Amino acid sequence: MADERAKEKLALEGGLKAVTSIEGRGRPKIGVDEFMAIAERFGFSKQALAKMRKAAEADDLGEGPYLANYYSPLKETRVQAFEKLACKTFGAKYAIGVSSGTAALHAAFVAAGVGPGTEVICPAIGFFATAAAVVESRGIPVFCDVDESLQMDPAKLEPLISKRTVALVPTHWQGGVCDMGAIMKIARKHKLKVIEDCAQACGGQFKGKYVGTFGDLSCFSISAYKIVGGGEGGLILAKNKRLWERANQLAECGGLWRPVRFAPPRYEGELYCGTNYRLSELEAAVDVVQLKKMPATVKRFRTVKMRVLKQLNSYAEIVPQTINDLEGEVGYALRFFPETIALGEKIVAALQAENIPAAMRGDKAAPDWHIYHHMYPVTVKSGSTDADCPYECPLYTDSGGKIEYAKGDCPVADDLFDRAISIGLSQWYNAQDCRNIAKGMNKVFSAYCTPDADARPWL
Ligand SMILES: Cc1ncc(COP(=O)(O)O)c(C=O)c1O
């Protein structure tokens, strides 16, 4: 009877607790073995796989939520470890791991003040995601022609700058690097922000300094196809804390990054509605390993390219691609421009017959999202609603903003993109492989071109 009364009495008042234990037993949230079977298919190293297993098991054992990148002052997350390593590797002050390179660009553009009524100068040769992220931020992409490095031509920037321009986006294209000295000079003169797109050249350097450390903000894709990458991921580097905070607000608007999550804004522009581009812990666990390997990977690529270039002869009908920094570029592609597409077709066929992986687009190729006039739906100025912001936004049109996109806007890019012959280089080629490739190239050039000691040298 006394027991019954104690059961009825509130625990608050000294009665027995209604719940003294939980009998239901949970099952693992993640099937660690199933997950690892998928990861193994991607061919990650043993070291990367071990880190992934550790992260997945920790979550299963209830020690999580480690698979979500929820910042904790008590335990460093894998994403925080990746960000720390990125700062150390590149010599950057601030880093944010995000879910993709496109997410990085969107966050960086918004952080830098891209919005309705603004313009951003992007290169004519790059990748669609860069210009698309400008539009997603409600800005207008303006395309700048390239030079014979196939990178943004600094000499063509100034005529494109208007009162609406807020940022320049040098995109280090296909393992090469932009002329960051000239670009930074123009940006400083016109007080413009620089947002580097390093997706295709992680580890590249210009005059001894990593690309990604020149701009106010820099963006990397760390997807499976990049120099550093697991599956899908991105990285932002920021020059100062304010830009880092504003980029964080876009990429993680839940405010987990803030010292006091619900504190009022500390300055105008700190808080606004962003989204969730958080990098997953599993991806970050892999990316830590990948990023550590980056310097050695880049060194191998450079060695291979240099070995081949050193052995090439000069020909009157062949112009080698200009290289803005021979010691600094990553160099996973070797490119040159034959005098005509017709000559290029013969050279490519002959190189392929020698087992040298050469390719040229020519003038009949399918559309390609690496050149501005194919960057559909940017070029058709399509908006997500009938209102068609940003192109019809009064903040843009009332200030004189008007743009159309068409082939012919950037004639150097139009010509060189189709006419360039590219040879993809493997970081694993040894000295003999490089000798064979150079020998094959000289053999083919000699058959179709005129030796010319005065032609532009390869080095
Ligand atoms: C130059 C450039 N910028 C941005 C991106 C977008 O990166 P992600 O695919 O990670 O969104 C890519 C991807 O290929 C790229 O090459």
Structure notes:
With 459 residues, the protein is of the alpha/beta class. The protein has a domain at 295-368 and 412-448: Alpha-Beta Complex (Aspartate Aminotransferase, domain 1). Helix content is 35%, strand content 12%. The chain is built from 13 helices and 13 strands. The chain has helices spanning 2-8, 32-41, 46-60, 78-90, 101-111, 128-136, 180-189, 241-251, 281-310, 341-353, 394-397, 411-419, 431-448; strands at residues 94-98, 119-123, 140-144, 165-168, 193-197, 205-206, 209-210, 217-221, 234-238, 318-320, 333-338, 358-360, 421-424. The protein has a 7-stranded mixed β-sheet, with helices on both faces. The chain has a 4-stranded antiparallel β-sheet with strand order 10-11-13-12, sandwiched between helices. It has a two-stranded antiparallel ribbon with strand order 6-7. β2, α6 (128-136) and β3 (140-144) form a beta-alpha-beta unit. The longest helix is centred in the middle third of the chain and has 30 residues, at 281-310. The N and C termini lie far apart (98 Å). The model has no long low-confidence stretch (mean pLDDT 93). Bound molecules: pyridoxal-5'-phosphate (PLP). Pyridoxal-5'-phosphate is lined by residues 100-102, 126-127, 129-130, 171, 197, 199-200, 221, 223, 234.
